[in-house]
Amino acid sequence: MADRPRNLSNRASALWTVGATVVVLGTGWVLSNVPEFAGFLVVLPAIAAGIGTVRQTAWVAIWTAAASAASIAKRPPPTSRENIALVLFSIVFGVFAVWLCSWRLSRAAQTARLRSAAIAMQRHLVRALPQVTEEVLLAGIYEPMPEENLVGGDIYDIMETAYGTRVILADVEGKGLPALGAAMAVVGSFREAAHRESTLTGLVEALEQAVIRQNLYAAEAGEPQRFVTALVLDVDGGPEVQAVNCGHLPPYVLGPEGVQPLQVEGVSVPLGLADLVDEPRTVGWFPLGARETLLLFTDGLAESRARDGSFFPLEDHLKKLDGTAPAEIPAALWREARAFADGRQEDDIAVLALRRNPMARRSTSTW
């Protein structure tokens, strides 16, 4: 659920308001200039409007007006016109602060509801992990960006088909509900085409057409067109895995020989941009042993930054996790990335760990 706006407690609001009043008027008393310093009290309702509730802001506004009137009564200015102007200014500014606080809380509640609905949609869009098929075991973690941009476009899915287990990890360009719409188009196409298309290139072409259609709808609505980076895999009973990389970050292979970046042959352009190149997308092949783990991730992990601007050293952290259970690696990486970035997360993060199912009934000794 989205975070609700946090406000001061009534006790804290009263304490800082009274304390600030004492400081301001006390300073004016020492300098024998109380009425002029009383004018600074109008800042208090403005502060309350930014951090408090409507009731607290109203209380601060009333207190400010009363304190200003009392200070004038104690040491009135030379003319009554100044008295009236100062009190009226305190009242008007207080009323405006109450309205501003009400508007702020209304917008914050609306944003919270919208973000909550968007995150619920996005979490419903992706499957709960872990997932087990006849060919693979898939564990992982998905953490939406906890900022006000609502949601990002990281998606993944896994389908057990007659052609083997097919997996996709994708990242839609941009943030917000338009990116979520493109993500829904890709996932919907993947779930249908994974069963229909006998070849991995045919499946990727169906995804390409889904993004193109979504971009046409976006153009009609006046929204920018988007591309989608994606890594699509097919794991069947053979010793090698098929892969089509559409501009996505290359995965890592973790196994007895350590941590190795995997460069899949035939890396192509992201989904939605196929018309920009002449070469068709091709399938790359790579072996995946029974004791090896394939780690897939989105750029939210790789591009996590420390306060000094340095990027998260993913490969170094993977080496430190040597001996960690494969199913625990994604969550461990996410925690280390958050710690590296001092708790900040500027993008969605999806990390998947894929292994062959040791109980697979299909033979892995022949192709």
The low-confidence runs, each spanning 5 or more residues with pLDDT under 50, are 1-6, 28-32, 362-367
Tally of strands: 11
Mean pLDDT: 81
**Structural class by secondary-structure content:** alpha+beta
Q: What is the chains' assembly state? A: single chain
Walkthrough of the structure:
By secondary structure, the protein is of the alpha+beta class. It has 2 domains: 107 residues; 228 residues, Phosphatase 2c, domain 1 (4-Layer Sandwich), CATH 3.60.40.10. The protein is 45% helix and 18% strand. The two termini are 47 Å apart.
Give descriptors for this structure.
367 residues, Phosphatase 2c, domain 1, 2 domains, 6-stranded antiparallel beta sheet, 5-stranded antiparallel beta sheet, disordered C terminus
Topology, element by element:
Elements: H1 10-30, H2 34-38, H3 43-51, H4 54-74, H5 80-125, E1 131-132, E2 136-143, E3 154-161, E4 164-172, H6 177-196, H7 200-220, E5 228-235, E6 240-246, E7 252-255, E8 258-261, E9 284-287, E10 293-297, H8 299-302, H9 314-320, H10 329-340, E11 349-356
Antiparallel strand pairs: 1-2, 2-11, 3-4, 4-5, 5-6, 6-9, 7-8, 7-10, 10-11
